[in-house]
UniProtKB/TrEMBL annotation:
PROSITE patterns: HTH_LUXR_1, HTH_LUXR_2. SUPFAM superfamilies: C-terminal effector domain of the bipartite response regulators, P-loop containing nucleoside triphosphate hydrolases. It comes from Georgenia wutianyii. This is Helix-turn-helix transcriptional regulator. The lineage of its organism: Bacteria, Bacillati, Actinomycetota, Actinomycetes, Micrococcales. Residues 765-830 form the HTH luxR-type domain. Keywords: DNA-binding, Transcription, Transcription regulation.
Amino acid sequence: MVGLEGAGGRSTDEDAVGAAFRWLALGRDVVVRGADGSGRTRVLGAAQREASRRGMTAVLLAASGDSPYAALRAHPSVVAERLGSATALAGWLTEELQARRSLLLLDDVDLFDQASAEVVLQASRSSGAMLLATTRTDLTRLAPGPVADLVAERAPAEVHLLPLGFRAVSRLLAEELRGPPDVALTSSVTARSGGNPRVVRALVDAARVADAVGLVGGRWRATGSLDDVPLDPVAHALLPRLGREQVAALELLACAGPLTREVAEELLGAGLLDRLAEVGRVRQLPSGEEDTVNVDPPALAAALRARLGEERRRRLEEVLADRAGARWATPEHGDLLTGGASESYWQWAADLVGVVTEQASATEAALRIRWQTRPTPAHANAYLGMLLRRRADAQVAAVLAGTELSEEDPVDDVVTFHLHELRWAAWQGEGEEEVLARLRLPGPHSRALHRLLHERTAGLEELLAGTGEWPSPVLHRAAALARAARLVELGHPELALDVCDEEDPARPPTELDHQLEGVRGTALIMLDRSEEADVLARDHLTRALHERDLLGIRVHACLLTECLLDAGDLDAAARVLSLFLRVGPGGPLDATFFRRGLTVGTILLVHQGTVDVAEMLLDALDATPRGFQPVIHSLAPLARAALADSRGDPGTAEQLWRAGEDYLAQGAVQAALVCWVFCPPPLPAERLARLRETWSACPSPRLAPYLRLHEALAAGDQDAVVAALPGATLDVAGLVRNAVAALDPEHAAQEAVRALDPRLRTGAEDDPGEALSPREREIAALAGAGSTNRQIATALSLSVRTVENHVSNALHKLGFTGRTELARWLATDGHPPSTT
């Protein structure tokens, strides 16, 4: 079998035709295999055109039903008098294929009626024609008959049509929409469609009918929720050729969501499940110890759920509750976190993380046995390197106490062991100096460890002066991380990059490398080089996913989420955030970027109106052991300010300013500047002067637009406000929103303002409530009155998920970040949403 992966990561018509003709040139027949909607017929049509271009005679027959000779009746050259005789029809087909270079094209050969298949078999035996067929199933599993005989005799090669990837979907969308799509729309359609071309087209048509896409700034973008578009075309595209039993099985799976293979077999039986997988309507992916089963593509699962009547849905849920029980239930927070995002991405993330965590568990178990067999520092370091990536207090304590150190151990192994011990001590709240005092290390290494701890709090002059050579590669790498991180904190990211660049990539990699690259990415962001940071994060995250490296996934997913949030691409940021959160909390070795990711995630979810989940992330942020020493600060005050602003709590400006003062007292100039520039306006004159002075000493290009916005607001210069807005893409506590609200109508109508996220333009429109659909107005009124999502769902006979989506959409359109703002608006606005 040949799998096709073009520039877009998945097959195209041209790829498939090219692969097929390479086989044909060798004298080998070809079968093109793909699920319904994957483009089999398009490929065959393209192959017919290519054959004509090459001067070949091509005859195309297509499955057309179960009646005798149905595939032949449809051909325009077949005369009626031949239809009653297989011999006459075989003679006709042989005559059609008498040319020296001829090609027989069979569309959906697995669905050919028996009589047509017998004719094709006879003609293939008496002509020299090559064969190119399409199928949706595995032809090696056919029941005995003429099609099976044809396959056995011709032994064709197989070209497998894989789902379209991002670029291929982008091209298809551009073709269907007659204009280029943006990244977010392409990602969303790619995920929902599973890369199925027919489903892509169905989704595009449905989105246009529902006004869920629009041409904005020369690109097609999602202007509404793709979750609410009519999905009947998807159901009609993929279900008609399935039997009633198979459709009923898919309905049950769609209601259940992802199930383990074991549970799915209990519900449906292994045979039925395998048949659905064979025709591409069920996907089975490794997830931990068992496969995970779900309907494919995700849009079909959504279509099936949408078409269920209430009684049918209730009966299916009763079956699931009775036969699957707790093994079917999905955690509530998972549903809240995913919100309106695509199901396929979440399923992929769940499957992937299952594999990653299972592999990590297996590796950890093997390393534990090796250490228990021979508790040397080398074996302990490998085991601790896994344990310190999570909360494993008892195991870590046992390894530290049970490892046998001797004078024969390599010094680097002993140094690494003690570095792990120091991380653990800080995590547990024990003083690092006390730990250093009891360590048994040669003098140079002991002094180097003391210097290493000092570098984490050193001043700029000390860092620039250098500290001489380090007595081991391990300490050299640890010192590079400490120096680069400290330079970022001191407000000199350009110097931090120099330190990162000095590191020899040929050195053996350590667990510190991910963090060093995370610091590099953070420095790039602060230098307003976010595109470079984005590329860096994607590259490292891709590698970490391939290697199933929990530490790498956590660090680089955090960095990529921050890049996407900084760029204003909230949907993409949310998808990466979901992966970041699924790998779970970090331990002493990598809690730095886990905590920073929680801050970024809190701000992101507040912007998307998912305040309850944002609060959950902030709780996790606050639960980190107080003794933990971060590589760089998490900027948790920003997360708290974002949540406080969403609730309408007073004192956000004072909270952020005090946090900046605290950071400055620790020498963390960069963190102080970040807190201060995001303060809501107006800043008092003395604070603005302090901000200017601090920024001038350590200018941060990325923060410059926010400083200019503060200065413009203080001066009452509306032109300067408008000029600064395009660079101020993130609004943590209301700076940008208040700046827009201060504009007069003439300035508010300028392109720079209208291009902002709709949430930041509230107040610049006459009646933001007009943007709500009738259902959104109804649900917004209930939510603003204090009803919970579950209460609203019960009152309106909707699912909780649907209510969550409508609330999120309403908040987005109104420019609000939480229900408190919604309640205030309902109480004060002259035209509150109608519930009728």
